[in-house]
Every structure is written in C-alpha cells, then in structure tokens.
Amino acid sequence: MLHNKSFVKKTKGGKVIRQVREHYLRDDIYCGAPSCTICNTSGARLSASPSTILVLDTNVVLNQIDLLENPAIDDVVVLSIVLDEVKNKNLSVYNRLRAICSNPMRKFFVFSNEYHRDTYVKEMSGETKNDRNDRAIRVASQWYQKHLGDAIKVLLVTNDKENKRKASEEGICAETVESYVKSLDRPDLLDLLVRPSSEDVEMEDVEDHRPSKRKIIYAEHKPMSEITSGLHRGIYHQGKLRVNRYNPFEAYVGSESIGDEIIIYGRSNMNRAFDGDIVAVELLPQDQWQGEKSMSIASEEDEDDDDVHLAPNSADVAPRTIPQQSSTGEINAGSGRPSGCIVGIIKRNWQSYCGSLEPMPIPGGSRGVAYALFVSKDRRFPKIRIQTRQLENLLDKRIIVSVDSWDRQSRYPSGHYVRTVGKIGDKDTETEVVLIENDINSRPFSAQVLACLPPLPWSVSSEDLSIPFRQDLRHLRVFSVDPPGCKDIDDALHCIALPNGNFDVGVHIADVTNFVFPGTPLDDEASQRGTSVYLVEKRIDMLPKPLTEDVCSLRSDVERLAFSVIWEMTPEADIISTRYTKSVIKSAAALSYVEAQARMDDSRLMDPVTTDLRNMNSLAKKMRLRRIENGALTLASAEVKFQIDTETHNPLDIGIYQIKEANQMVEEFMLAANVSVAQQILKSFPLCSLLRRHPTPTKEMLEPLLRVSAAIGLNLDVSSSKALADSLDHAVGDDPYFNKLIRILTTRCMSQAVYFCSGDLSPPEYHHYGLATPLYTHFTSPIRRYADVIVHRLLAASIGISKLPSVFQDRLQLTSIADNLNYRHRNAQMAGRASVELNTLIYFRTRPTDTEARVVKIRSNGFFVFVPKFGIEGPVYLTTRAEKGSGEWYVDEQEQKIKKMDGSFSYSILQTVQIHLEVVEPQPNRPKLQLTLI
User: Fold this and answer.
1) pLDDT tens digits for range 678-692
2) Which domain holds residue 903?
3) 20 to 30 Å CA-CA from 909: which of 97, 255, 541, 650?
C-alpha cells in the first residue's frame, strides 16, 4: 500500500514549495513472537512463550539504558519510531540499544511500525511531533495485544503521565518503569533506575538531618539562548573543561576566543561541571585572576571540606573567588592568568564512573534503601550520591555508577548504581576499571566479526601470486626489528647495495586490507575500536588474534602479503626514486631491538642480515640528522618498563625504558614511509586524504617552559621548531638528567598530534610541528591502527590497483571517523598510563623505597617531582592541611622557588631532592603512591 506524505520546504531563493514523499506500507512485517500463528516466525527474537511483552517509549530508552542492558529485562519490542528518535537525540544510547538488539542472547525485537499497514499513523492537524510519536507507540502496543491475543500481556512502559493516562483510556496496559521493576521482585534492579532531579533536594534534606531550607549552593546555569548571545558578544567563552588530576578544585578551559587557557578555581566556580564538559565561561575581574603562586596541590582530605562547595551568602549566588596573596600576605591586583567561572553547560560529558562506596552517616531509608557516596577512583570527578538496596554487598567492591542530575541545591550530583566490576584490590578488577574508565572495548569479537576471517591455517596461494599488481619479493632479504616478544609484527625492512653504489631500501607493511574489506562487520568493529591498546601485562586488539598474530603478522620464514614502499637512496640517504606496490615477502629474521643492536655492535659478525642492518643504520643516522637540521624536535617522555612475573603477572622490577640506535633506525624509516605515502595520497585525493597534523604551540602554551628556563638561566628560543630544537641541544648541565628533564617539560607544552581529513583544512594547517614536515600520515601499523587501514585503501586507489570505497565521498563521515580515531588514540594512551600507575602501586606496595628526585613544578603548598630511576612523577607536600594558609611558605614565581617566610630554606625548579616512596591509603579503597621529603 502506498501512502503519500507531503510537506512544504523553503528554497535558498526564498520560494516555498510543496514536496511529496512516497511512503510504502506493508502487511508482511512480522511481530517477532515465535508463538504467533499468523506471522512467519523464522526471524522471531522473542521468547517462545512469554507471559509479558514490553513496549518502551523513547524517554524510557534514553533514561534507563543501564536497566535495559541488564539480562533480567527481556522480551522487549523496540519500535522503529523509538529507535529513530533515540538515534536523533543520543547516539551513544542508540549504539548501546543496537548492541542489545543484535545480541542473539537477548530477546529484543525491532518492529518497523512506521511501515506496517496496521500501525502507521498519519499526522493530525495541530499535533506536535512528540504527541504523534506517543500516539504511534500506543497504536503499536494496541496492535500487538490484539495480534497476539489474551494469552500474552502487552505492557507499555512509560514515565510520561499523559501518555500513560491516554493508554489506559484506550484499553492499553501501561506502567511506569519503577512500577514494572518492582513487580519483578528484584530489589537489586531498582538500584539501576535513573532518579528524577526533583529527588535531589529530598535526599539533601535527609543527608543534612534537618527540615529543608532549600539552601542555594551553586549559581543557576544560564539558558542556552543567553549563552549563545553571550558567546557572540564576547561576554562568555566556550571550551572543554579539563580538571587537574592532582587537584580536583583546579581546572582549565582552553578558549580560542581569548587564545589562552582560563583557570577555573574552586567547585563553586566550576558550578557543577564535570571534566570533559563543553562549558560557557565568564571571566572574573582581573584583580581576582589566579597566579601560579596561589595554586596548591589538593589532598584527599580537601574533598570532604564543605567550603569547596558552598557559595557566598548572597542573593544572586555569585561564584566564590580565591584572592591571590603575595609573599607579604597582601592581595595582588592585575596579575595572574585569566580566571573565570562557569555560567552554563553547553554539552554534558557524563559517563559511567568506576570506584567504591562509602556509607553516609544517616539513618537507613525506607524499605531497605540506604544512601551512600560513590567515590570515583579518578579524583577529577566529585563524589556521587546514590541510593541502594545492596550496600553491605557493595562496600568491598569496585562498582560502576552513572550520573542522573546535579541540582543547584545539592552538594553532590545524584546517580545510580549500574553494575559491579569485582573485588577491590584484585588485579583483574583494577585492570578492568582502567579499561572502563577510558572507554576501551575489551569484549570478545562477535561471531559476525570472526566469520569475516579467512579459513585457518592460512598461507599464500598461487592465486595471490598470480594477481598482476602483487609483486613477488620473496627473493629479497627482508627482516623485522621489534620490541622483545612482539607477535603482531606489521613492518619489515630490506636494504640491498646496488651496483651503482646506491641502496635499494624497502619498508614492507602487513597487507591488512587484503583481509579487512570496507563495510563488513570486521571493518566496522575495527573502525569503532580505532586502535589496539597496550597495557603493562596485556594487549587489547583492534583486530582478532588470528589476523594480528598469524595471517597478517610478518613472522620470519613464512610467506606473507605486504604493501611495500621502496626507494632508491644514495649513500647520503637522498631519495632518487619511490615506488609503491602490493607484494609477497618472506622475512629472513624477526629480531628484537636488543638483538639487532647486539649484531650491529659485534664487529665479528659480517653475515648479510647484520651488514644490511649496519647499512640501514648508517642511512638512518643521516636521515635523522637532516630532519633535525630542518627543525624536527627530539622530545622525551617518561616511558616506564616493567619486568613481569610470568605466573602472577605482577611486576618484579621497574625502570626507565632505554632507547637504542636500533629503535631510532626503525623509527626513521617508518617516518620516511609515512611522509612518502602522505605525499602520494594527497596528490591523488586532495580533498579526502586522511593525514596527521601537529599544531604549532602558542606562546601561552610555551609560557611555563619559558618561566622555568629563565629561572635556571637557560635561554630557550621558541621562535620556530628549528630554534627550539637547537636550544634543547645546547641545554646541558652537570646533572646527567638535566637535558632529558628539559625535553620532558617541553613535551608537556605541546598540543596532541591529530588525524584530520585533508578537505577540512587548508594546506598550511597540514604541517606537523614536531616532525617539521609539511605532510604526514600513518601507514606503517595497520594491524593496530585503523587510520593506517584507511590510508592503505587510499594508497591502493592512488596507484590504480583498487577503487576508492564510497565512504571517501562523504566528507562528514570521514571527519567523524577522524574524530573517533583521535578519541580512541588518546584513550588508549591514557589507559596505558593508568596501567603503568596500577602496576607501580602493586610494585611499591611491598617495597617502600628511598630515592633521588628532581623538582619539576612549584605550587603554594609543595612541589611536583620527577623520579628518574622509576619514571614516576608525583606531588610532595610542604604543608599539612592543618598548616594551610599559615603563611610559612611562599612561591617566588620569578625565580621558580618555594621559600620559607624567614628565608631560611627554599626549593627551586630542577633541584635534586631525596624522597621516600610508599603506598598509603588516606581514603578507603583509594590507595596512592605517597612521595615525602627525607
């Protein structure tokens, strides 16, 4: 049956035209119930004989997705109109709902009510879209009940009072979510329910043991219309809130409108914003701006101080500000960095948080309900108040909690329990917490994904060798150099001396796209995961292990498919020519960095592979020198290496990762391949190439580095990357760690390198500051990075061996892919660091240690130190909480020192100090590595 939908549309020229869209209605859309005697049941997803089938309205899905993910909720009909509305309103919830619906273990069935002849509803005059959608949901519920008969109860679940009232009038069974869950006799499920924000005040009253005074704690958020107007007029400034991991009362908002970071100091000024929220900020008067000297390191005890929440007693609840004191205790005016207060939330970044519970010292609630404060493992997030019926069972567990609301009359946000991760302190539990906190998908690959893999065992076939564009390079002496124990080998090298004195040099990369085809479940999964994640003791793969460790891995003595970049190079490492080809290789050796270095260093070895290594190393040194001469930076980070017990998986030893010449040799050729490929794909596809850029740091970003260098008498020229690189090379001192520390401090002033679509920016913006190259991309690690998979497809199309997939015609989708890759890449980095921190805690728990450290950042109540031996950084307090504000110490920003008032003692930047390392637990279930001065 054909139904015409008509609507009016305004053209760019201002004309109003009527458009008619044909809407096909069918009567062969099935209900999904196996017991149905009318429908085809081959695609049925519901239970064989359910007592009740649930139909959900949109708001129930949007607000109660945590409940729906619990296996206790089943036999659910998801209407297509609800699915579409959820997709438009919240893509994250939509993806979670789709995951439930596609899970064969769950009884969720998607019913296309908008295309069924009996459930499609026409729009009525004067009816809002929301009212029409509610009516469509009621019509579908009514149809299901009539269709299935009285043997099965069809229940509409809605929290909308009006929708529920109309349903009852129309003879439809309807209940609220809470009412339905209570009928299941599963009290634990009630903990999963999202609470309306109106309950915040009621719970606050219970918490405070007194009748409601409706005390206003936070300023009211401005409406979006006022925020938008204020942003246009320059009154407000937009940016992402980043909370200091060492001080949850200190945060920053990067603002493009003023070209600097705005400091947000104190919970009142943060005004209920969470780390990661997009916020609108109003600058405070300049005499209230914060200077470095007024910034302190917060202790765990500070989080229980009511003063961090309370606003002043004024009618308009103005944000509380913290005056800036000089060494004499007087208020400084007109100094410091831009400081502000948050006036509104533009986009929330509420997620699920991992941590533990602490009971609230109040009488128990009704019907066994207890109130508790959830304490996140990550100090950047405030405590969250929840109510639970299983408190005693949860006190020794790591749990996940979601935020529901944060009322301005409430000291804490309100949330609800989601699920239990495991027992506190158990290593597997704490590792899973790391993955959850960083949104890492560690679930096993689905059957649909695994079905995309080639049959095993796999080997190169005669068909692979007969393909015209695939060159047989098995005769080349190819080898790989990787970290010890590496199984997912995605790059190999060769270097052959030519008769003319030049070298034939190749970088061979695993041909992942020969097995991962666009639009398949395998490709979709890799696209979502974005990257493999490397923890201390394990790896979370982007692709299934049969591909990463066998089919694609360029192991020694086996034939494998590759994508090769081959140059002719002079002995001075000048590139004469470049060619790109798909290939078949057979690696002669899979070496570790240590093995490769040992071969090059052993003058007795003259075998062909060792000779190739030495020739490559010679070329790499010249390439590296040329890059540095062009302005490439050699930066540093504190990479930590653990020795892991093979049985317990606990750390046995910890130290700084040592970089060898062999590491630098491989890096140099990977960089060269990435640059060559970037040039090739951009030449062919100037509007849809995936590239990687590193923005030039602003003057404000480099200010902390310049302040430190000036204080220690070091002249750093930051006018260009070349000038900075030269300055860093000359930054040497008596301390063997001095240069590395300066490079680490420089690294922290840089922005992140990011992926982008070439059509989104102009060529000058493509520049990679750190590598000092106008073009760069990622091509060399397709086993572990999806960006490289995309680039392989671009390169294959650019040399005419395959067609460009259709996604490259969709700029918006490409940009979305790049955004996801940046998000996943950063999360993988954060998860890696969190894994290092977890293993550091485990190591020092039984090994209190005295060691040497360097001061790297000054604060008003102490300083941060870097421990070179272990690659650890952390705070050292000079004043206790009781002494805070006593004026015993003050910060000299000019000299980058913290001094005693009487001048008897001081600590300066980069000074060597002796510290004691020990694991302590100042708050229950929140162990930390404490650094104290000896």
Assistant:
1) 999 999 999 999 999
2) 848-933
3) 255
